[in-house]
Amino acid sequence: MKGITKSFYGIRANDEVNFEVRPGEIHTLLGENGAGKSTLMNILCGLYTPERGTIKINGEKCFFKSPKDAINAGIGMLHQHFMLVPVMTVWENVALGDKELPQVLPKNKVIEQIKELSDVYGLSVNPLAPVWQLSVGEQQRVAIVKLLYRRAKVLILDEPTAVLTPQEARHLFRVIKKMAEEGHGIVFISHKLDEVLEISDRITVLRKGRNVGTVAKEEASKEKLAEMMIGKRVAFAIDKPIQNPGKEVLNVKNIKVLGDRGRLKVNGISFSLRQREILGIAGVSGNGQEELAEALTGLRKPISGKVFVDGDDVTTGNPRDFMKRRVSYIPADRKGTGLIANMNLRENIALRKYWKSEYTRFGFFINWERIAGHTGKLVERFSVANPSLSYPVRLLSGGNMQKLMLARELSDNPRVIVAVQPTWGLDIGATHYVREVLVSQKEKGSGILLITDDLEEILALSDRIAVIHGGEIVGIVDNPDKVTEEELGLMMAGTKLEKYPVYDLKEDELE
Amino acid sequence: MPRLIIERRFKTPFILSIVFPLLSIVLALLTSSLLLLALNVSPLGALKGMINGALGSWYGISEVLVKAIPLVICGIAVALAFTMKVWNIGAEGQIYLGALASAAAVRYFPVENTFFMLSVMAVMAILAGAFWGGIAGYLKGRWNVNEIITTLMLNYVAIHLVDYFVYGPWRDPSSLGFPMTAPFPDFARLPTFGGTRVHAWIFLALIIVILYRVVIRWTRWGFEIRAIGENQRAALYAGIPYIKNVVLVMAVSGALSALAGMGEIAGLQGRLQHGFSPGYGYTAIIVAWLARLNPWGTVLVSIFMGIIMVGGETLQVIMRLPLASVQVIQGLILLFVLASEFFRNYKVRILSGDGR
Amino acid sequence: MLRKVMLFLAIVCFAVSSMAAYAAEGIPEEKLTAGFVYIGPIGDGGWTYMHDLGRLEMEKAYPKMKTFFAESVPEGPDSARVMETFVRNGAQLVFATSFGYMDFVQEVAKKYPKVKFMHCSGYKRAENVGTYFGRMYQARYLSGLVAGKATKSNIIGYVAANPIPEVIRGINAFALGVRKVNPKAKIKVVWLFSWFDPGKEKEATLALIDSGADVIAMHADSGAAPQAAEEAGVYVIGYNNDMSKYAPTKHLTAPIWNWGTVYKYVAGQVINGTWKSEDIWWGLKEGLVDLAPFGKDVPELVKEMVKVERDAIINGKHVFVGPIKNQKGEIVVKEGTAMTDEEMLGMNWFVEGVEGDIPN
Known about the structure:
The complex is a heterotrimer. Chain A has helices spanning 37-44, 67-72, 90-95, 107-121, 136-149, 166-181, 193-199, 222-230, 289-295, 319-324, 334-338, 345-350, 368-381, 398-410, 428-443, 455-461, 485-492, and strands spanning 2-8, 11-17, 26-30, 52-57, 60-62, 75-78, 154-158, 185-190, 202-207, 210-216, 248-258, 264-274, 277-282, 304-309, 312-313, 327-330, 360-361, 365-366, 416-420, 447-452, 464-469, 472-477. By secondary structure, chain A is an alpha/beta fold. By secondary structure, chain B is mainly alpha-helical. Chain B folds into 2 domains: 1-41 and 323-356, no CATH class; 64-320, ABC transporter involved in vitamin B12 uptake, BtuC, CATH 1.10.3470. The chains are: A alpha/beta, B mainly alpha, C alpha/beta.
């Protein structure tokens, strides 16, 4: 790809970008969110048409009008959502959309081909299994089989490890390396520096839509890549001051919570959170974390069990009951839940405060002047870069949105903070800032429940770690410095380890 | 080969949101001219006739206002629901039910005092409309029943309910069996002004417009409605109760439309009659949408619709145009204005050659 | 100030005197403009279509006259504006062709006392408001004779618009005609609750045919019923105008309107200055109602019989003359007495032989 240029709304998402992949090579595309990685790859697989620039495959100039052209040219993309049909079996999913097959599907032929591919690349896929029975990692491998079955020569893997346990990621890396050995060109997209360094042959860094440079693996280091990504030096370490945990602020007793489709998503979880403590809940996404967080903030009612905040039973409380007890909630889904994209900064700050007496007049009108003043102070304190307080927040960057949400949730010195994936999708600078703010809030006395699938974050911040799998706590780690990623990975996959028993906090241990 | 690329506008320049509707009206008139020329009618004469009919005399203006009153009230009513992304298609039925309730007041609790009589009628209309809207609101909030379907179906129920009464128990014995109630006594009529048919609800419409503005902009409830409309999950997260608000909004929306219904029969008709509303409840949806839920926009668009309707009648009478062609012209104007919405939100670029 | 008052008085005097002059002298043909308010589109092939034919007939008779018309005017407050628009554009004579305009005719007439209003089928009159309608029941009675002779199953279907006296009167007259020639026949009535709804009209026709009717009569404004009858191979009696174009082989006849007779008469009076408010209720004699030409399946004998009855009515025979029994078999009109116009205008019961209810 040479000189690729593409703009949206007059903003250049790609500006004269060059990128190449050789057969047998794993080439990583690295960059922060909004650096132009996705745009570039969507151009490569035919979803967008570039304004300028050329794509050559094996030296031949190509022009893709649609994704079909790209597939025919041997380019396959593994999306973050696999686009498989859950009720169908693996082989049916693989055969689906293959126009060359006759109307009556030659089942045995397809199955045989799947087995062959599976053996060659170590994918271990059972062609007859229905997709809904498979784990996320297995589904991902089915999606890869599908790409290989379509004779993809170039495979684009878009943040493939985001949904995996460390063990599954390891398995995936083996598959990727095998594919490269067999002569495929691999484009690996990620912003996790550790895994990038582990797997890549070469690394191309994008920043603000431009090439920053391409380095071979041997020349790269974490610090160097980070500097290329954001254009300045970054500190990685977070000081984790060990505090003396205080009084218990949140106590959860054997709660069971149903998910959106009425399935039991949280199956009897108990724990206790104290002041000046960060309790990390580690686990692969979709194991009940969202439901747990919502049950602890009043958005979802547990079907059994109890939730206590500062000793008050708030199990059946509504969100406002939790707010009144100063339970803050930083949801994972910033734009979908935490903020209202089309409303301005003032209104978003008002979102969880407008009903409080200090922001109303006669109990009926909202005192917007006071809210504007409050917003102004918060924006300054949390350094939210913004053109104006009356700007809709959708125009802010992800980092500034997150800062705005933190500003709202942390400003009233909360007793409990429930933070879900607080740094998801943020650039390195913003990530660092968010973590620092959380730690300093802990020092000020809040109890923080940190729910994330980012192990690095869990290890960097937590005073204790509880591992969740299938809606249950599998193990509790009291001393995060001593635990290995492998051990955490095993527990995240559901294995109980004797070293880390699940214990209920006894009443007498509290004070 | 050249290709058309359609992109969402990042932000619509203010000037465009004025230029596009005007431009679209001009285009619609130009297109209509072709039709008129084919019918051997001078387009300029027709335009003059239309404007003259609607705005050329105090009478024309007063009639435009008469048309605009129910449109403004119902337009605000649906705009309120639309702000919360609750699609109230039921204004028409709520108009009918409000009229039914106020007619019931005249029939069963006649008070020989204009003020008290009208107050009783208004209260009855409000209760009936609130109940009618509230049903759809509750079904939506509690069981997530699609409000488009329920409100639409309730329209039929309301219209047939009115038919039941005007064909049946309430039929005026002296009407030779025609489906209408007895004429209302004078104390049950809204006052009119200056010999025109403009009635007291013109003030109600203005009050509602101002109240709507204040509620949406400055009150807690307005903020809650906006938050739910923009992002229901976030509103839940902010602790805003959904069911309560959806019922309340639908009830208020229904009550407003019901008041418009009362205005039609107490202000103009003077009795309840089969089919008394020529679809104001549906036109109000177009009004609210074209006004982009803006209260003053609602006033402007309602007046615009009034001009089209009143002017269209004049066109039919003095230019001797067939009704169908007048309706085509009215339809074209609306179509072009609606289409201009697209260009307000999107821009079209032409790409030529191989991806350049 | 005084000068202004004087001026005003002068203007008023002038206006009043010129008005009086108009009323006495009539309006010259070339200065007369008449406006027509129509309930449906002129292409409805029924009620409005016939009124429009009447308007054209009037234009032919008085070629220098001008006319306005407005189609599909709802029977609500909008109709008042249409009439006022006519007047404001110079109309001195307004015809409102549907019952529901009644209140609004009164409202506008009060505002414009020198303009003459003629309201069709209503009962409210004023100094400058007259009413007009036709004795359609006479033609209905004749068409009943034809239907009674045509039925084999002795079940005749009647597609009826709205349960109001005008329609009930038509059904009763029709039933009297049918039973005169065929005492065993029954008339089944289906209500549409609408004047113009082709879909419903067709459905009702098919339902009646399903229940055994082999002749269909109708009181509705579109040609849907004859069309459905033709398709089903069943005889049909149209309404409003000759509907044989909708049912070329099955159309027997139709009671029809000739509004032109009234319109020519009224226009002439206005031109001559002899117009005064009156209640016109004309029938076969004046030619306002009549029968359409017979279809090819109507036997000569029947045609002859209808001609005899028609002549009798023109010469003063009354259709509703006793003994007439109601549905329960009780005598309502005694032997030898004829119903008065008032009784016929308020008719709200069915004669013997009609099957169906009158809702409330």
